[in-house]
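stage 2 :: seqdesign
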């Protein structure tokens, strides 16, 4: 992603002009925010840089639609089930703004010094002329958002009359009596309304002028403010949410409607997990960053996809990407806890850590026909079954054609191998002695030669044992934290 920087971190110092005269002399000209976004987007496309870095699984579907909407200068609404990355995508749009933009110092509306829009702004320029102070606003400060809730008011979004200003002697018709809401305060930026259907219909009406006429109305009189912003909304599909709807006139004013989706390919699900899960593990002498082997990441990804497709799960609510992310972080945390208890030097996740995902993730799934009295035991059974299915699928995919007869023959004489939370890696491997073709197994599971450790070897062997059990070539007895594999 060369050339793409974090939009929230300034990559350079603000430009030099600090007065209106200096700004005019520099050749600066006002540019609408949508033209600014369009120009920066086309520049990225021309150089081959990702237009929306960090967005996984949308490259061939959602991203092109968003790009076309932005090039067309459309406000847009993103429709999709929970946890499909709608909010993440919206916040990524900030990176398409110019890094710095000039503003009148003290303006509530981020007014461009060369094109003020308020009575206050025009007065500042008239009084101070070329000496009018100019500041520079970073793009991270040009984004506003509101989570729509039933108690959201017109005052929150648009503004209201400020009684204190009226008490100071101004008349109600004076535009300077207005306390501006979130939308006008994001002028010359991007404003997002999340979960738009949850906004009361009478409040949605207040956005009609913002989207079409680009002005606002407050308390019966019109404040002519030619607002300059990109408005983006998110919503769940109307066949899912019963809490409200987007009123037809408002839907008509959005230039584009883009449908989001969960990752289509397993590889995208895995990429998303690597990008989002466990980004801030605490450091210190006694706790290293846990290692979660690739095969366990794939199991979590497959588990998530199986839960989404399960007939037992309410398909209208979906299964959020946060389900998978929380599951992987739970596995990593289980490995850290187990390493601390067993005295291992490096926490490496193993199959024994997988069962912790089920109770931790149950609350993130809405089961079909659960009613007011859900069957917790049945729901746990469903998730446990799907987790075993995901493990078996991963074993078949990663170990297909691998010769595991040497490992399997260890049990022909009645020997057993005990695993569990209290069994360290070295103890697990010691029960098996010399493991035939261990290096081949490690290589197949993505452990580079030279980086292999006892903990990684134990994780690979335990995965192979679990796979042999799930394909009915070994038996397994589980009793709490103790697991015994045998013939």
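stage 2 :: out
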């Amino acid at each position: 992603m060369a050339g793409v920087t974090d939009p929230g971190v300034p990559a350079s110092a603000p430009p030099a002009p600090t007065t209106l005269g200096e700004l005019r002399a520099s050749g600066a000209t006002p540019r609408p925010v949508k033209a600014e976004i369009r120009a920066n987007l086309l520049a990225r496309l021309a150089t081959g840089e990702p237009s929306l870095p960090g967005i996984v699984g949308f490259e061939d579907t959602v991203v092109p639609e968003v790009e076309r909407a932005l090039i067309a200068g459309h406000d847009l609404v993103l429709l999709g089930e929970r946890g499909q990355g709608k909010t993440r995508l919206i916040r990524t749009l900030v990176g398409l703004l110019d890094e710095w933009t000039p503003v009148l110092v003290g303006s509530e509306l981020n007014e461009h010094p060369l094109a003020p829009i308020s009575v206050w702004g025009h007065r500042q320029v008239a009084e101070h002329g070329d000496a009018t102070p100019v500041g520079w606003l970073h793009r991270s400060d040009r984004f506003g958002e509101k989570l729509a809730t039933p108690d959201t008011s017109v005052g929150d979004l648009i503004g209201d009359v400020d009684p204190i200003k009226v008490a100071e002697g101004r008349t109600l018709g004076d535009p300077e009596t207005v306390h501006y809401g979130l939308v006008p305060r994001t002028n010359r930026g991007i404003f997002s309304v999340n979960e738009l259907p949850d906004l009361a219909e009478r409040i949605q009406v207040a956005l009609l002028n913002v989207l079409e006429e680009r002005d606002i109305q407050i308390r019966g009189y019109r404040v002519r403010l030619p607002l300059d912003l990109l408005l983006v909304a998110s919503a769940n599909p109307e066949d899912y949410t019963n809490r409200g709807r987007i009123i037809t006139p408002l839907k008509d004013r959005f230039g584009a409607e883009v449908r989001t989706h969960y990752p289509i390919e397993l590889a995208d699900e895995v990429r998303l997990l690597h990008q989002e899960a466990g980004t801030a593990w605490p450091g210190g002498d006694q706790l290293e960053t846990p290692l979660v082997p690739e095969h366990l990441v794939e199991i979590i990804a497959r588990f998530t996809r199986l839960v989404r497709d399960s007939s037992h799960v309410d398909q209208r609510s979906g299964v959020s990407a946060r389900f998978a992310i929380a599951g992987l972080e739970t596995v990593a945390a289980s490995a850290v806890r187990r390493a601390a208890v067993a005295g291992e030097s490096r926490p490496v996740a193993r199959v024994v850590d997988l069962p912790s995902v089920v109770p931790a993730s149950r609350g993130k799934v809405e089961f079909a026909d659960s009613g007011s009295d859900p069957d917790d035991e049945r729901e746990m059974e469903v998730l446990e079954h799907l987790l075993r299915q995901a493990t078996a699928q991963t074993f078949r995919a990663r170990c297909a054609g691998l010769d595991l007869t040497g490992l399997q023959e260890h049990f022909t004489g009645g020997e057993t191998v005990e695993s569990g939370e209290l069994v360290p890696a070295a103890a697990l491997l010691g029960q098996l002695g010399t493991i035939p073709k261990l290096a081949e197994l490690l290589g197949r599971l993505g452990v580079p030669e030279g980086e292999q450790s006892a903990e990684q070897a134990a994780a690979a062997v335990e995965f192979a044992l679990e796979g042999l059990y799930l394909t009915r070539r070994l038996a397994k007895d589980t009793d709490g934290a103790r697991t015994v594999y045998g013939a």
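stage 3 :: structure notes
- The longest strand covers residues 229-235.
- The first helix runs from residue 20 to 25.
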